[in-house]
Amino acid sequence: MATQTNPSVAYFCMEYGLDQSFKAYAGGLGILAGDYMKGAKDHNFPIVGIGIKWKQGYTDQRIDPMGKPYDTYHNYNYDFMEDTGVSVTVEIRGLEVECKVWKLEAFGNAPLYLLDTDIPGNNDTWVTGQLYGWFGEERIAQEIVLGIGGIRALRKLGINVDVYHFNEGHALFAGFELLREKMEEEELDFDEAVDAVKSEVVFTTHTPILQGNESHPIERIMYMGANMHLTWEQLEELGGSPFNMTVGALRLSKKSNAVAQLHGETSNKMWAEIEDRSEIIAITNAIHKPTWVDPAMIAAAENDGDLWATHLQNKRSMIDFIEAKTGHRLDEDNLIIGFSRRAAPYKRSDFIFTDPDIIAPLLESRKVQIVFSGKAHPLDDTGKGIVANLVKMARQYPKAVIFLENYDMAIGRMLTRGSDIWLNNPRRPLEASGTSGMKAAMNGVLNFSILDGWWPEACDHGVNGWQFGDAYENEKDEEKHDAHDLKAMYNVLLKEVIPTYYDNRKKWVAMMKASILSTKDQFAVKRMLEEYFELLYKA
Q: SS3 for 405?
């Protein structure tokens, strides 16, 4: 499968955001994986994907009459997958579990092989029920299917692989299966097997929040049968005790990457004390333009077309979309801020409402209109509180604030095309990448963002968007950090964003053009894939 110049790659990921009709993604990790697979197909890279066919996928998150989010789950049947006729077995808690292998190529993506335990009479049919599961044992079972089952599926399908790419630590048990092969079939000892596996594995780390990196008691890994005959001491040598999946992946890969240049610095600081880990380099994420970007906007920017008229078409489509969903119609002449992402505390989704003395008059006059969307993790009560507050503000200002429930790819595409500006206000440096801002930028939607994730690499303040906060960090005093950023955000909004939008349309349109032209190639998936091959896969 490898070309003369490129090694063949198997890409392991728990989630894939390929289309809103395929409920196999939770957030940015899955969207990145979906764009990666589409880019591999577009640009003819020798890549196959390994994942899971989720029966229910991630939550459909609705809002109840009291304004609180709640989670619903549906059984999905898909008619766009091919039955490979192949199945493999894995052992979970001493029981053999069969995993059927499906092939998916329906969304312009490179071949994606999905494992499925939902087989009548199977042990543990619900392992592949809900994306990310609810409990530690369930998560390990799912990762056994992905990693160990994934390697076995590749072998049974006859797919030769040069490089195994683990997108997040979820795939680490694939490395354990590779170790088992080296030790049992090639009769290498543990250290020799580790060295041999390292030469074939690369790893992408995402979350810059230490607590967000998955870990398990070693007892649980061994009880579930995920250790693949590795001893307690060998597991501890790889991932510590409790066993940290990210640490294990860093030690079992020849090279690792962070997902933005700043994230590279953050990750190296974060894991500085881990001995024998692979080098972490930075390869900034990118997006699949045909999925996310209106080609008419790029054409208008490149050919001196009427950017504003083209943008207004997208803005009206978004306003119509919002009205159909909520019954509320925004004013197309007035500024619309877009904000859609996971409701995680560090992302500060409701940050703009902090000082009502400043924001209330802008909302009451409709000088500023804001559209929000986003889900909280089903087990994250703090995140659900953030969503509830966004709903409360939408009910308080129904003509100026919108909350679109059950965030998905369709909503994301609509908002990153139709908003006027794209707000992003995480606590720096906790945003790993933030690809929604790339989508907005290429659609001429101006970024208005903290210098975090990808934005420090692209921002030319007042030329192709705006920054606020001046790269301020204060991990020891969250309150002081928030106060600093809030003052900066309001200052730029009131003194630069709003006056430019209402009083200097010529400059606004020039900024839209600069936004598109400065991002359309640098943050497109082709560049990212080329860097993966040159800096990771061939290294």
A: coil
